[in-house]
Amino acid sequence: MSFLNLFVAVPVLTVLGIMFTKDLKGTRIVSAIGMGIQLILAVYLMVFYMSQAGVNNLHEIIFQSDSVWFPSLNIHYYVGVDGIASAMILLTAIVIFAGVFASWKVEFLPREFFISLIVLATGVFGFFISLDLFTMLLYYEIAVIPMYLLIGIWGSGPKEKSAMKLTLMLMAGSALLIAGLLGLYFNSSAEGGPLTFNLIEISKITIPITAQRLFFPLTFIGFGVLGALFPFHTWSPDGHASAPTAVSMLHAGVLMKLGAYGCFRIAIFLMPEAAHEMSWFFIILTATSVIYGAFGAIQQKDLKYINAYSSVSHVGLILFGLLMMNSTAIDGAIMQMISHGLMTALFFALIGMVYGRTHTRNVNEMGGLLKIIPFLGVMYILAGFASLGLPGFSGFVAEMTIFVGAFFHNDMFHRVATIIVVSSIVVTAVYVLRVVGIMLLGPVRHEEHLKLKDATWFEKVSTITLLVSMAGIGLYPLWLSDTILGSLQPIMEKITMYLH
Amino acid sequence: MDFQYILLLKHEILLTLAALIILFVELFLPQNKKRNVINISLIIFAIVAFAGFIPTAQGNLFGGSFQGSRLTDVMKDILNLAVLIVFLQSTGYLKKSENADKMGEYFALIIFTLIGMDFMISAGDFITFFIGLETASIPVAGLAAYDRYKRKSAEAGVKLILLASISSGVLLFGLSMIYGATGSIYFADIAKNITASPLIILGFIFFVSGMGFKLSLVPFHLWTADVYEGSPMNITAYLSVVSKGAAAFIFTIVLFTVFKNITDLWELVMYALAVITITVGNLFALRQDNIKRFLAFSSIAQVGFVLLGIMGTGALGMTSVVYFMLVYVFTNLAAFGVAQAIYNQTGVETISGYKGLYKTNPKLSLVMMLALFSLAGIPPLAGFFGKFFLFTSAASHGYFILVVIAALNATISLYYYLLVVKAMFIDKNDKPIAFFKSSGLMRVSLFITALGIFVVGFASGIFEYIMSISSSIF
Known about the structure:
The complex is a heterodimer of chains A (500) and B (474).
Chain A: H1 6-19, H2 24-56, E1 62-70, E2 75-81, H3 83-102, H4 110-129, H5 133-154, H6 159-186, H7 199-203, H8 209-226, H9 235-242, H10 245-270, H11 272-299, H12 303-323, H13 327-358, H14 369-372, H15 374-387, H16 394-407, H17 412-440, H18 457-475, H19 478-497
Antiparallel strand pairs in A: 1-2
Helix pairs in contact in A: 1-2, 1-4, 2-3, 2-4, 3-4, 3-10, 3-13, 3-18, 4-5, 4-10, 5-6, 6-8, 6-9, 8-10, 8-11, 9-10, 9-12, 10-11, 10-12, 10-13, 11-12, 11-17, 12-13, 12-16, 12-17, 13-15, 13-16, 13-18, 13-19, 15-17, 16-18
Chain B: H1 3-6, H2 10-28, H3 36-51, E1 59-61, E2 66-68, H4 70-94, H5 103-122, H6 126-144, H7 151-182, H8 187-193, H9 198-215, H10 222-230, H11 233-257, H12 263-285, H13 291-311, H14 314-346, H15 357-360, H16 362-376, H17 382-395, H18 400-425, H19 440-458, H20 460-469
Antiparallel strand pairs in B: 1-2
Helix pairs in contact in B: 2-3, 2-5, 3-4, 4-5, 4-11, 4-14, 4-19, 5-6, 5-11, 6-7, 6-11, 7-9, 7-10, 10-11, 10-13, 11-13, 11-14, 12-13, 12-18, 13-14, 13-17, 13-18, 14-16, 14-17, 14-19, 14-20, 16-18, 17-18, 17-19
């Protein structure tokens, strides 16, 4: 048994534990303890990986364990992580830990809420530890379904409609994915050997280019739907706006990154030739995501919609970086996954907390909140700074790296695309600063807002966890950047092998 | 004849004995103790079902007219298991006062159909096949009309018997053409001589049309929703799981053995049938409010998925079909079980009537949700594995576009399954169904099905076992 199986076992045990709790308090405590253990494990994994990679300069996949599941189809339960997966696991653990504290006040069917939330997280953790395409698909779909109940039961606004839209769009994405993964499977053996779902094994061979041309778009779009790739992003604003706080956090913070990670780890990694051939098309789509999301955010007045559109824009940037297919840009894209994951989770947590107090998410109905709830206000400003890529926060390092990487391409098309995408930073500044100006500064618009209370202890735990992690990357990015770069080496060899 | 060879017929012999014993027991029970026939029948059938799992010899009987192999044994065991669950779920219905005079017949009729299905599965020639088919269809009409004072039930019975006979006629016509072209009724001989000649193609089309009625493939599906709605709910469950399962098994066997030399031809036919069956089934299921009609159309779509498995041919195709039907038995019977529990207690059989069910009956709602998610193919439930292997089977012959179409259809199906989940979990209702406790046997059956939904997927041993025996039929 590999150490990594704990990442699935702990959430499952937590869920079983919650089933046996009697009251609200017990449910909260069991969830917090379970996810706390999970966070400690994730930190340990990251530190262990870094110490190993640092000492031996070996960037191999650690904690590998391979057991046969369905021998006749050669389906294995194969786990193992490299630096990138470890970082994603750490991100997930931080966000779900913060998410549990952010949902401390859920009082309607709390047991069911925490069970669904943690089942969702189980799917995400399972996805990141897996190296077998079948188990990856399995965990991916486990992560999608609890969302329907979470949004449908505990959401706000037109929740049933948003939940249905989100679930169906993501499942349609996974329908494409099933075909894509089966396509990989049936082309996984060049010399007529046994077929395999093993990611590492498949990466050692070259999939025939005709097959790549069919299965790359299927796989990329399949994961791209979850990564809110334009024009498949429409589930994201509605879904995030209707979802309860913790779900928005986990979804925008982690799940959308899971989509991007899949695009990279499966579609681009296994089918680099087709990725290279078709990258122009997807670069146009992702650049559109970036710009469209940013302008979409300007138009919105609802805080959650603003942040949801902003997520579309930022995740578009991640996909954009991945499609540049050089190690600098991909390094930046992966840093952006982590950085944006933390940042947007913090945003959604704060929005949830503000909404819980003011009962409105309309920016124009709030004002002067910084004086009334200084802790949350300052947090919001800091998250905003990170969002617009101010130095000292994680966002700056990540975005800068992506743009530098993108500029390595010196042809007209890439230059123009990059310049367009860079300009989105200005738009980001507009919508972030506008919200800060109206909501936090200026006159108080409602008398009753004067009576609002500042953050409670659990809200502080939630937000500080996220802020500390963000600052940890922003102030000293090298630990993360080096780990990612190291783990990228074998992947880049495969991706650039045919580019001579 | 050796005793060992008689054992090849163990399923059929045991079932015949069981049916006769049940009929006699009911005859000799005193009037005030007639009710005991339910428990006696259950015990007898449980013994028969478990005895089926005892491994026996393989081989042919009656000059190749009857073939027994590990694979046919597994198919029969799956059907026995399904019927056992149906019996457990129907006690509530049978204990109603209007059924007091016809309890034994219920068990006997279902067992008779099972005997027919078993002969059909083991058939080695088209005569045995056809006799099995008729034995399996005629009692079903009686079952569909079991609520004889209800108009809809009588209508269902008449509809079923008329369409079953028409489809049998069509089927028989096709078989006669194949006999005319190849000069034999034995599967093995036909398989050797079959070519894509016009007469055989015509015969094949009639054969597929006839089987299409039994499987309710689109465009031969029109009877399904009416019959399902009219029949008592436990019969609907039986029709949608056992009848369908048996038809799917025999269809697969005949395609894989008799028509294996014209695979190119029938794969095209299956392609078209799969696409329209899944799509039409789904589109009609979208707007149903009656839970029986809803599950009827959903089961049409599910059978369409089976065709994907059939298209894989070979061991993988056979395994994926048998495995999917096993999964389907647990999944669909869980859904029907919950629907029956609710109907027997409250008379509610509409989805809108389920609103707010989770508040009052959380366990039933959870089982229903599991079943629906498994039907939609959501992991980690068994339905995901079943569907994935069907897709794998179709993909192994390069039908990736079909896989995309089917998987997108699975998403559409998720929409209507989620509508039921929404009704139970999300929608508010001032007067939800009050809390009730369903009968002990019903709870046992729901526990078995829920366990099956969880375990059958993960337990790769089941899939591997079917895989290891599935080539024995070729």
